[in-house]
Amino acid sequence: MKKIALLTLLFLAATIVYAQNSEKVKILDGMIQQGMTDWKIPGLAAVVVKDGEVVFKKTYGVKSMATKEAVNGQTLFAMASTTKAMVAMALGILVDEGKLDWNDKVVDHLPNFQLSDPYITADARVKDLLTHNLGIANADVLWVLDSISTDLTLKRFKHTKKIYPLRGGFTYQNIMYAAAGEVIAAVSGMPWDRFIEMRLFKPLNMNRSQTRAANIPKVENSVTPHYDFGEGGVQVVDRNYSDQIGAAGMMWSCIDDISNYLKFVLSKGIQNQDTILRPSTFKTLFQPHTLIPKNQFYPTIKLTEPNWLSYGLGWFQHDYRGQKLDFHTGSLQGLIAIAGVIHDRNTAVYVFGNMDHAELRHAIMYQAMDLFAFDDEGTNWHPKIFELYETLKKERIKGAQKQIGARMPNTSPSLDWNAYTGNYHHPLCGTLKITSDNETLKLDFNEFQQIEASHWHLDTFMTKPNKQWTSASAMVFHINGKAKVASLEFSGYTFTKSN
């Protein structure tokens, strides 16, 4: 009788847990469906892992608005900057093997490593490549406007200016993760992407995952990126294949594979009783290494109101409901991701989407944590986050218009249209070739990024959004005393015209 009573109690307990989880799944699923409508997201995949078990995993919508094929658990999405955590883990494996130390000088492994400041060059440590506080300005224009080798990318990066002392601030820096990938190659004897395939993807059974964006057209079942062009509607845009900075964010995965990854993260570096990362090394990855000013953090802090903000090794961090939340977003043109984990509650979340900067990802992460980490409904995050970002979007549009200046009516370029054509150069950004066609300037950056621009006012032109370049950006030409174009300003850089 006692045995029957015990079995009955266990059955009732299991039934209660199932009912509770079913209600949580219903709440999260409903929020996601409403959020996809409001954010106009074509396709999405989300997973929540709690205590080593998948408690929520669903796919939504389509891979492409053009094909209307449904997303499934094997559909590949861009991991984008959530790649960074895996690169840090790969370095951690080499630390465990005694082949590397976090405080090794970068130049000891990459002798050609060079920054604009000689002191920072000489003293930069491997760990510094991961924490965004070297003191060098952001230079994402390198891979946005050109398609060059990793080696040449790092060589050009030396033209990026120092903006604060070494380890004296925070500036998000993709290029240094590319350098971290080169450190992996130098120390391990194999390319960083191959190392991750062998030492992380294989043991974690991430069999669909890809370390190079260039592989995606060769692999079946992947999403296409989308962008909301406003009056032009949601359209498919071009994929980004900038594998020269691959270690910063060019890996792709599917929600089935990511489920295994989240289990590994919650097991603190253990996979099937095999130690992939030693406990001390795993702990180092998630320790705060850099403090982040509020004005450089995600706008969601206006709603979550954390007491502190920091960055680990591949993870943003802040307190949420009294617990440390480690998370990271991933954003490439038309594609998004987010990973989040609260170790003390054994809960991890991951979201993929194929709509540019669809911040529903934040709402899903926080809502999932409320439901599964804290076991309550918490806050209905989607409407709050949607309203926040819609307000910020309007403010950003107004700010851009103000920065450009009110359009002066009835003005013309100072010179003949052909005077603006020719080759322009910047040591960091490369070569820009401008041609003219029927009062439209055609811009060709390094035979890679093609954009058109029309006259705005005086000697300012405005780029036209397209499937490669999705924003309207000002180009300001400067005329010298000889009534000739001397240079132009674009995206914060001054290109000098060749004679």
Describe the structure.
The protein has 499 residues and is α+β, with helices and mostly antiparallel strands. The protein has two domains: 395 residues, DD-peptidase/beta-lactamase superfamily (Beta-lactamase); 81 residues, Lipocalin (Beta Barrel), CATH 2.40.128. The protein is 33% helix and 23% strand. The protein is built from 14 helices and 22 strands. The strands form five sheets. Strands 2-1-14-13-12-11-10-9 form an eight-stranded antiparallel sheet, sandwiched between helices. An eight-stranded antiparallel beta barrel has the order 15-16-17-18-19-20-21-22. Helix 1 packs antiparallel against helix 13 and helix 6 packs across helix 7.
Which parts are unreliable, with pLDDT below 50 for 5 consecutive residues or more? 7-18
**Main beta sheet, described?**
8 strands, antiparallel
Give the termini distance in whole angstroms: 97 Å
Query: Globular, elongated, flat, extended or rod-shaped: what is the shape?
Result: globular
Helix content: 25-40%
Under CATH at level 1, the class of the largest domain stands as Alpha Beta
C-alpha Rg (nearest Å)? 24 Å
Q: Overall mean pLDDT score?
A: 94
What number of domains? 2
Structural class: alpha+beta
CATH architecture of the largest domain: 3-Layer(aba) Sandwich
**CATH superfamily grouping of the largest domain:** DD-peptidase/beta-lactamase superfamily
The CATH topology of the largest domain: Beta-lactamase
Helical region count? 14
Number of E-type strands: 22
Strand order of the largest sheet: 2-1-14-13-12-11-10-9
- Beta percentage is 15-25%
